[in-house]
Specification:
heterodimer, A: alpha+beta, Heat Shock Protein 90, 5-stranded mixed sheet, two-stranded antiparallel sheet, elongated, B: 245 residues, alpha/beta, Rossmann fold, Arc Repressor Mutant, subunit A, 5-stranded parallel sheet, 4-stranded antiparallel sheet, 42% helix
């Protein structure tokens, strides 16, 4: 679908509302034979136009046209202009005032909305930065320490000891990679709906790619997959959506204590594709639910040794899904465990 | 795989990050390849023309020039295989590099096993090409999949798979380039000749049918990997990553 320029769109909105008000008025005049309602209908029209168009131009234009219309068609002398009568000047003034005030109000509301959105984005970023800089320190210290230990005690450490230190360094580095990929995604999203480049991706290929990557990292964890058999192609930034799914699956592995079944299901409904990642582990405490997607987990609340990347991973997921104009939410299952849901426009 | 003595395969590594260059050189050296290094595009071209390596590993983000221009330059009069190292977010770069004639790509960060597997796969397919007497086998075998190029027959565990003409052509094309990523554009050009806006979808639908006929389930795909938004790759028989599946 081609997007109309906002200028053309506003013009279409204005003229159609004007035409509709004019027709309604003609009808009223014909049926009820009264003129009291006529200016009201026009004022309502101007009000609507001022709300749904941008800037002052269309509202003011509509009020001038309305004055002319009332003057020409709906006041004595009918179908003739009488622009100098005080009634005409007065109604013109009123309509102008309505138009200007509504436009001012809508502009102000729009500005506030914009500000609020930017604040929210800023807040997510600050939270992420704070959480991440805290989280990056631990593995970096461990890697630095292990490497120094090996270099400085090369002769005295047994081969097995060195291997353990190296193994840990590699695990820490892998974790850092995951973290940095999340960070990269956040910078990639930047401005919702602007930077994201969507290409049609075949659902089956996406799921295959996700599962292959997931199994390489967690070969011991099986995943039950349920998805439609037909050919479904969804426009998306594949790397980002892949990351959402991997984040959700890995979160379950790391955080869902006592999990035995991990499942990934996809279903199609009314122009949307619904993805569900569900586990039968320990579920999510109620008090954590609300802040789960905001990246606002309090680090002090984390038990020692448990890395808090769940908060970061989920806020990244949420940012990615929002940038795709989808929705993401979480629910505890009635029979234990938690389910994460998100939708994409298909 | 690699030869020993002074008859080693020569690999040119062009990468400006010292640490990455050094770890890549170390593993290649440990696996009996002779390693040449360069840290800029111009130095790379110099080393390339004076030593004539068997394989080039190229980082796309070089300080003096775009790695893509290096590929363009080399491809003017050489078919030396090139493996591109690319950052995760640059899938457009990957596609461009592959379409310019790069043979494969590895996304940073990568592990040593992955790097060695790609290097081996490419050197092996070169080896087959450069020995026309043994002109590729007439049968391709990968796990329980086998493709007979003469009778145009595809079987899985001995059971014959009935593919359409186009589906067979795609499978055969991928298998002839096993181990290498073929971009959508490359496949479309070889199968249908001309590319039009609908052809990627046409290819994807054909691939979906092929997967269905081969009985492949998501995540249990032993034969073909999906490089999302880029193209497809058939595993090579000795590719260790095909064993996971």
């Amino acid at each position: 679908m081609k997007k109309l320029s906002p200028y053309v769109k506003d013009g279409v909105v204005t003229s159609s509302i004007m035409v509709i008000s004019f027709l309604i008025n003609l009808l009223i005049q014909k049926i009820y034979d009264t003129q009291t309602l006529i200016p009201m209908i026009f004022v309502l029209g101007i009000f609507l136009i001022s709300i749904y168009t941008k800037g002052f131009f269309w509202g003011i234009a509509a009020s001038l046209v309305s004055v002319l219309a009332v003057n020409y068609a709906f006041t004595f002398p009918y179908y003739d202009f009488d622009l100098l009568s005080p009634v005409c000047v007065f109604s013109a003034l009123i309509m102008l005032v309505v138009a200007i005030m509504t436009c001012t109000l809508t502009a102000r509301i729009r500005a506030q909305e914009q500000l609020r959105r930017e604040n929210e984005k800023e807040k997510i970023r600050t939270n992420l930065l704070r959480a991440i800089s805290h989280d990056l320190r631990t593995p970096l210290t461990a890697i630095y320490g292990s490497c120094s230990a090996i270099m400085e005690n090369y002769a005295s450490l047994t081969e097995a000891q060195q291997m353990v230190l190296l193994q840990q360094s590699r695990e820490d580095a892998e974790w850092l990679i995951r973290m940095v990929e999340n960070l990269l995604s956040v910078t990639r999203i930047g401005n919702p709906e602007v930077n994201i480049k969507k290409t049609p991706i075949v659902l089956e290929e996406l799921i295959d790619s996700v599962l292959t990557k997931f199994r390489q990292k967690h070969p011991e964890q099986s995943v039950d997959v349920v998805m439609p058999e037909d050919f479904i192609s969804i426009p998306m930034d594949a790397l980002l959506i892949e990351q959402v799914l991997i984040n959700l699956l890995e979160n379950a592995v790391i955080h869902a204590k006592g999990m035995s079944v991990l499942s990934l299901s996809v279903s199609r409904q009314a122009g949307e594709v619904l993805f569900t990642v569900s586990d039968d582990g320990c579920g999510i405490p109620k008090e954590r639910m609300r802040e789960l997607f905001s990246g606002y987990l309090k680090l002090e609340d984390q038990p020692d040794g448990l890395r808090s990347n769940m908060g970061i991973g989920l806020s990244v997921c949420s940012a990615i899904i929002k940038a795709h104009s989808g929705r993401i939410w979480v629910k505890n299952n009635t029979n234990g465990g938690a389910s994460f849901y998100f939708t994409l426009k298909g | 795989m690699a030869n020993t003595g002074n008859n080693k395969y020569k690999i040119l590594v062009i990468e400006d990050e010292l640490n990455i260059r050094s770890f890549v050189s170390t593993i290649l050296d440990a696996n009996h390849y002779q390693v040449l290094t360069a840290d800029t595009c111009s130095q790379g071209l110099l080393v390339f023309s004076s030593y004539v390596p068997d394989l080039i590993i190229l980082d796309l983000g070089l300080p003096d020039a775009d790695g893509l221009s290096f590929i363009r330059h080399v491809r003017l009069n050489s078919t030396t295989p090139i493996i591109v190292l690319s950052a995760r977010s640059g899938e457009q770069d990957k596609v461009t590099a592959l379409d310019l004639g790069a043979n494969d790509y590895i996304t940073k960060p990568f592990g040593t096993a992955e790097l060695l597997a790609r290097v081996r796969a490419i050197i092996r397919s070169r080896h087959q090409l450069s020995h026309p007497g043994t002109e590729g086998p007439r049968v391709f075998v990968l796990h329980d999949l086998s493709i007979d190029y003469d009778s145009r027959q595809v079987t899985v565990s001995g059971r014959e798979i009935h593919l359409t003409q186009t589906e067979y052509n795609i499978v055969a094309l991928l298998s002839q380039h096993a181990g290498k990523v073929l971009t959508y554009t490359a496949i479309i050009r070889r199968i249908w000749g001309e590319a039009d806006p609908g052809s990627i979808k046409k290819l994807q639908v054909n691939m979906a049918n092929i997967r269905k006929k081969l009985g492949l389930k998501p995540g249990e795909n032993h034969y073909i990997t999906n490089e999302l938004g880029v193209g497809y790759r058939m595993y090579h028989t000795e590719d260790p990553s095909s064993m996971h599946a």
